[in-house]
Design a protein that fits this description.
The complex is a heterodimer. By secondary structure, chain A is of the alpha/beta class. Chain A has one domain: 3-Layer(aba) Sandwich (Rossmann fold). In chain A, 32% of the residues lie in helices and 21% in strands. In chain A, the strands form 2 sheets. An 8-stranded mixed β-sheet of chain A has the order 6-7-8-3-9-10-12-11, sandwiched between helices. Chain A starts with 5 loop residues before the first strand and ends with a helix. The mean pLDDT of chain A is 92. By secondary structure, chain B is α/β, with parallel strands linked by helices. Chain B folds into 2 domains: 251 residues, Rossmann fold (3-Layer(aba) Sandwich); 72 residues. In chain B, the strands form 2 sheets. An 8-stranded mixed β-sheet of chain B has the order 6-7-8-3-9-10-12-11, with helices on both faces. In chain B, strand 7, helix 8 and strand 8 form a beta-alpha-beta unit. Classes of the chains: A alpha/beta, B alpha/beta. Chains A and B meet through helix 6, helix 7, helix 8 and helix 9 of A and helix 7, helix 8, helix 9, helix 10 and helix 11 of B. Chain B: InterPro entries: AAA+_ATPase, ABC_Ni/Peptide_Import, ABC_transporter-like_ATP-bd, ABC_transporter-like_CS, Oligopep_ABC_C, P-loop_NTPase. Chain B: It is found in: Cell inner membrane. Chain B: This is ABC transporter ATP-binding protein.
C-alpha cells in the first residue's frame, strides 16, 4: 500500500465549556476524541454521523482551520497538526474546503470572478491578467458561463453558488478537498448536478475528497470508503459496498435502516433507535452508544471498546467484535 | 379550461374532509406579482395522508399557508379559489377572526423548525394548554392535566416534569413532538405538516415519522404532508401531488407514482435521487438541466418546457391541463399535466 495522502492519528479537539462569571470553565466538550483515519490519492472518504457527532470539527481540523488539541495529522508525509500559519501556507494550497451554505461562504460584495481569484491573490500566484484567465477557465470547468465573472452571489441560484464554491476550492490545484455537507442545502435535482460535477472533477484532476454528510444516500453514491462517527469517535469504517451490505455496528445498522427510501413497498424501518444523542459535555461512560444500543451489556457501560477489525473493516463494539472473533 | 377539467374528477371513496379548488395565492412585491400558488386543486379524504412534494419555491408551503389564511402580509393574498373544510365552509372567505377559531381547532399545523415556531419564553406545557384554552373554557389545572397527557401521547419521557421545561431545554426531536402535541390538542380533522422532519437527524426523523403515523391512525385525522423528500412520501402517504412552479404537475396513488412516474419532471426527480448501489460501480446521476423559472416571469406554455427532454412545439404555446390519464375517472385516478399524456378527448 502506498503512503496515504492524509493520515490522522489519535486526533483530538476539545473545547472548554464557557464558565460562569468569576467561575472558570471546568468542563470540556470532546468534539473529536481520538480519531484515526487515512485518505488515499484519488479516493473519497465519506464521513457520516448525526448533528453534534464532531464530523464538521474533524473536517475543519483536516484542513487545519482548527488546531488539534492532541494527536498527529500527516499530509504527504509531513506532520501538519502543529504547524503555525506561516509554515502552513504551502500546505493550504494543496488542501481546500467546500462549505455547506454556499450563500454564507461567498462574500456578497465581491464579484464571482474576484471570489475565485482570491486564493490566487492570497498565495501571490500569477499576474492580474493570468488570474483573470484562470478564473474564466475555472468557471468553465464548473459549468458556468464567462458572463458570471462580473456577477454577484445574490444573482445566482443555490446550485450555481455551490459551483462557485467549488471553483474557488479548485483555483490552487489542490490535492485534497474537504467537502462539508456540500449538497445538503440543495434541491434533489440540483444536488445530483453537483454530485456529478464532483465525480467528474475527481476523475479529471485526481482529487481526493473527504465528503462530510448526514445523508447516507448521498454518501453511498459518492464515497469509496465510509467512516461513521458517533459523539466524537469513529464507530465503524469500511469500504462503501461492505458498509451498506453488511453494517456491523448497531448504530450503523440503525442509521442505514432509518433512511426513508423512495420505495412505498418497503416496510417502515426495522431498527428505530430510541432516545436522542446524549449531551456531549457529559457523554455516557464506556461505549458512548450504550444507552441507545439494543446489544448493550455490562461491559459496554464501563469500558470503551477500541476500533478494531481487519485492515478494511473496523468496528468499535464489544459484542460485535466478540462474535466476529468466535466465528472466525 | 384547467379548472373545469379538474373539477370533473371529484369521485373519491371517502368524502373529502378538505377540498381545495383552483386555489391561487399571489405575492405582490412592489410591481411584481409572484404567482406562488397558481391554480391548485386537490381533495384530502378523511383519515388519509396526502403528500405535496416539490422543490424549493414550487409553492408547496405557500399552499399550506394559504389554506390556513397565514400568507405573509401584506404581500400575500388569495386571488381566486376555494378551500372547503368539512363542517366549517370555505376558509378562503373567512376573516381573520373566524380563521382564528378554526386554526388549531378543526385544522392544525406542524411547522418545519420547532425552535422558531415555539415561543422561547413560555414553558412548553403552558403552550400546549394555551392551544386548548384558546378554544374551550377549561380551568388552568384541567388544561395542564391535558397538556401532560398530550406530552405522554407524543412519547416524551417524564411528561409531568418536561411540562415545565422551556423549548431551549429540549432537543430538536422533543420540540417537534411538542409541536405535534399542540397540533393534536383539539383533535383536529385535518393536520397540515410542512417539512416536519427536515430539521431532524435521520434516526430522530424515523421516530417522529413513526409517531405521526401512529397518532394519525389513532385519532383519524387527515394529514396533508408537505415535503421535498420522496423517501418520506413513500413511507407516509397514500396519495401524492407533485408541484412544480406553482401548479400540480402530477397526482396519483403513491404506489403508481414510484412504479411508473408519468410527468417528465417527476421522472427527473426520482431519477436524480441517489439509489442504493448494492456494490455496483458508481454511475453518473441523472439530473434535470437548468433551474425553475422565476414565479414572477413564467413562460407562456408548460412551466417545465425549458428543462424538459421531451419538449415539442405545443408545449411552448399552451399550458397543458391537469387531466386524468386515459380517461380514468375512478377514485384512484392518476392525473398529469403534460401534453404527452393528453388523450384525444381532452385535446
Amino acid at each position: 500500500m502506498s503512503a496515504p495522502l492524509l493520515e490522522a492519528r489519535q486526533l483530538r479537539r476539545h473545547f472548554p465549556v464557557p464558565g460562569r462569571l468569576f467561575r472558570p470553565s471546568t468542563q470540556t466538550v470532546k468534539a473529536v476524541d481520538g480519531v484515526d483515519l487515512h485518505v488515499a490519492r484519488s479516493e473519497t472518504l465519506g464521513l457520516v454521523g448525526e448533528s453534534g457527532c464532531g464530523k464538521s470539527t474533524l473536517g475543519r481540523m483536516l484542513v487545519r482551520l482548527d488546531r488539534p488539541t492532541a494527536g498527529e495529522l500527516f499530509f504527504e508525509g509531513e506532520n501538519i497538526g502543529d504547524l503555525d500559519e506561516t509554515a502552513l501556507k504551502p500546505v493550504r494550497r494543496k488542501v481546500q474546503m467546500v462549505f455547506q451554505n454556499p450563500y454564507a461562504s461567498l462574500n456578497p460584495r465581491q464579484t464571482l470572478g474576484d471570489t475565485i481569484c482570491e486564493p490566487l491573490v492570497v498565495h501571490r500566484v500569477g499576474t492580474p491578467e493570468s488570474r483573470r484567465k484562470r478564473a474564466l477557465e475555472l468557471l468553465d470547468i464548473v459549468g458556468l458561463q464567462p458572463e458570471h465573472y462580473a456577477r454577484y452571489p445574490h444573482q445566482l441560484s443555490g446550485g450555481q453558488r455551490q459551483r462557485i464554491g467549488i471553483a474557488r476550492a479548485l483555483a490552487l490545484e489542490p490535492r485534497l478537498i474537504v467537502c462539508d455537507e456540500p449538497v445538503s442545502a440543495l434541491d434533489v435535482s440540483i444536488q445530483s448536478q453537483i454530485l456529478n460535477l464532483l465525480t467528474d472533477l475527481q476523475g479529471r484532476f485526481g482529487l481526493s475528497y473527504v465528503f462530510i454528510s448526514h445523508d447516507l444516500r448521498v454518501v453511498e453514491h459518492i464515497a469509496d470508503r465510509v467512516a461513521v462517527m458517533y459523539l466524537g469517535r469513529i464507530v465503524e469504517e469500511a469500504p462503501v459496498a461492505t458498509l451498506f451490505a453488511r453494517p456491523l455496528h448497531p448504530y450503523t445498522q440503525a442509521l442505514i435502516s432509518a433512511i426513508p427510501l423512495a420505495d412505498p413497498a418497503r416496510p417502515t424501518p426495522e431498527v428505530i433507535l430510541e432516545g436522542g444523542v446524549p449531551n456531549p459535555i457529559d457523554p455516557p461512560r464506556g461505549c458512548h452508544f450504550h444507552p441507545r444500543c439494543p446489544l448493550a451489556e455490562d461491559r459496554c457501560r464501563v469500558e470503551t471498546p477500541d476500533l478494531v477489525g481487519t485492515q478494511e473493516h473496523k468496528v468499535r463494539c464489544w459484542v460485535v467484535n466478540r462474535e466476529l472473533a468466535s466465528s472466525s | 379550461m384547467t379548472p373545469a377539467l379538474d373539477a370533473s374528477v371529484q369521485v373519491r371513496s371517502a368524502p373529502p374532509v378538505l377540498s381545495v379548488r383552483n386555489l391561487h395565492a399571489h405575492l405582490h412585491l412592489g410591481d411584481t406579482v409572484v404567482r406562488a400558488v397558481d391554480g391548485v386543486s386537490f381533495d384530502l379524504p378523511a383519515g388519509a395522508t396526502l403528500s405535496i412534494v416539490g422543490e424549493s419555491g414550487c409553492g408547496k408551503s405557500m399552499t399550506a399557508l394559504a389554506i390556513l389564511g397565514l400568507l405573509p402580509q401584506p404581500a400575500g393574498r388569495i386571488t381566486e379559489g376555494e378551500v372547503w373544510l368539512d363542517g366549517v365552509g370555505d376558509l378562503a372567505r373567512l376573516d381573520q377572526r373566524a380563521l382564528r377559531r378554526v386554526r388549531g381547532n378543526a385544522v392544525s399545523m406542524v411547522f418545519q423548525d420547532p425552535m422558531t415556531s415555539l415561543n422561547p419564553v413560555f414553558r412548553v406545557g403552558w403552550q400546549i394548554a394555551e392551544a386548548i384554552r384558546m378554544h374551550e373554557t377549561v380551568s388552568r389545572e384541567e388544561a395542564r392535566r391535558r397538556a401532560i397527557e398530550l406530552l405522554e401521547l407524543v412519547g416524551i419521557p417524564s411528561p409531568s416534569v418536561r411540562c415545565d421545561a422551556f423549548p431551549h431545554q429540549l432537543s430538536g426531536g422533543m420540540r417537534q413532538r411538542v409541536m405535534i402535541a399542540i397540533a393534536l390538542a383539539r383533535r383536529p380533522k385535518v393536520m397540515l405538516a410542512d417539512e416536519p422532519t427536515t430539521a431532524l437527524d435521520v434516526t430522530i426523523q424515523a421516530q417522529v415519522l413513526r409517531l405521526m403515523k401512529r397518532l394519525q391512525q389513532d385519532s383519524g385525522a387527515a394529514l396533508l404532508l408537505i415535503t421535498h423528500d420522496l423517501g418520506v412520501v413513500a413511507q407516509m402517504a397514500q396519495r401524492v401531488c407533485v408541484m412544480y412552479a406553482g401548479v400540480i404537475v402530477e397526482e396519483s396513488a403513491v404506489g403508481d407514482l414510484f412504479a411508473d412516474p408519468l410527468h417528465p419532471y417527476t421522472r427527473g426527480l426520482l431519477a436524480s435521487m441517489p439509489k442504493p448501489r448494492h456494490g455496483a460501480a458508481r454511475q453518473a446521476l441523472i439530473s434535470i438541466p437548468g433551474t425553475v423559472p422565476p414565479l414572477s416571469r413564467l413562460p407562456a406554455g408548460c412551466r417545465f418546457a425549458g428543462r424538459c427532454a421531451h419538449v415539442f412545439s405545443k408545449c411552448r404555446e399552451a399550458e397543458p391541463p391537469l387531466v386524468p390519464v386515459a380517461g380514468d375517472l375512478g377514485p384512484g385516478a392518476r392525473k398529469v399535466r403534460c401534453w404527452l399524456h393528453v388523450g384525444s378527448e381532452a385535446a
